[in-house]
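Backbone shapes recur. Consider a single case.
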Amino acid sequence: MSQVVPPILSVLPTRALVDETFQVQVENLPPGSPVTLHSLHLSEDQHYWEAYGYYFSNYQGTVSVSDDLSFGGTYTGKEPMGLLWSMRPVPGSRKGLRLRKMNVCTPMLINILVYSGHEGFRDQAPLVSVVTERWYMAPGVQRIEIREKGVQGTLFIPPGPGPFPGLLDMWGGGGGLVEYRSALLASRGYAALALNYFSAGERQSAELELKYFETAFNLIKDHPQVMPDRVGLFGLSLGSLVSMYLAAESTAIEPRCCVCISANHTYPHGLTISGVYRELSKNFHLVRVDENNHVIWRDMALAVMSDPSNNLNVGKINCPVMVVNGSDDQNWPSVESAEDIAVRMRAAGKDHLLTRLEYPDAGHLIEPPFSPHFRATNFIESITKEKVIMLWGGQSKPHADAQEDSWRKIQSFLQLHMYSSPGPRAKL
């Protein structure tokens, strides 16, 4: 009597950084058999996330996620990383969840499972499973908590003697200390300071606030493992506004370059960040909700931005700038903002410093590659302090493509301007 050979599942590499691809392959299946490949992750806040694809084994009894088509599930077609980027909370989870790594010193553990058939796979035992590790922090990266000169943050230093280029890394209006992008940037060769700024206490004046950011920038610049003339700015949403504000208005620092995701340059003169939000609140009547009661800020922000005096004079920027945005951004008018930035820099003779990336059907939260897409998530509204579900926008597949493509181009931009010989700068 012939013995049934169990299927073999391989996930290579089993341990990788989150921006690296993997190969998922199942062998020893009956030829032409339907199987479901399922990824499952338990987040640090104890919520389960999953993705799955429906496949048919070939005549050799093999399924390769990189080479074969998914005929259904959370993604379709040939999607080598669909088991990651299409992850969503399992059915029955509470609404508005967002998957974010809080402890970057441990990996994301993703369980890859194989089931027979397509329908009802959750009710059966898997044929085979493998656990794979996804890391934001490469071996040898140093993580250093910063509580110095009033600055709150976490500095990540790449492995090796250095010196390295540095980046001041700033997230958006959700506040708090968010480390995972900085850890990944350090894994790619940049000393990155994840800065806590929005919820680190309101500063009394715009001058004191500017001083806080300048002090943070100089903490990186003066670190013995950092190249002092190669420190840049990296921001998303509100963080992109701070990056542009520093590049345009600060006379105390000279950023090497700026990366601004979901561009924002609306910063009425003389206001603190909290003051900017108070200015926004004057148009709070323009906030809309969609059919799911998700909050849309876009029109409120557009009303403030439409007054030219409320926007930064980005024509004063003298370093290379990369602006990244999605055309379906429902939180901020980042398309209009990017266009106005381009107009202002062109008028100042600085258009050679600007690189623009715009992605159709991508939303506001453009994160490192293979991160799940979050169209709407829970958010404490900065103006009303109410807990709402904020609409960020985007469609899963185009947003995933935008994250993968933009990260690759951001790495090229940083390599060019931070590691190469001096990049283009405007004549002063």
Remarks:
- Confidence is low (pLDDT under 50) at residues 423-428.
- The chain has eight helices and 21 strands.
- The domain at 142-419 is CATH 3.40.50.1820 (Rossmann fold).
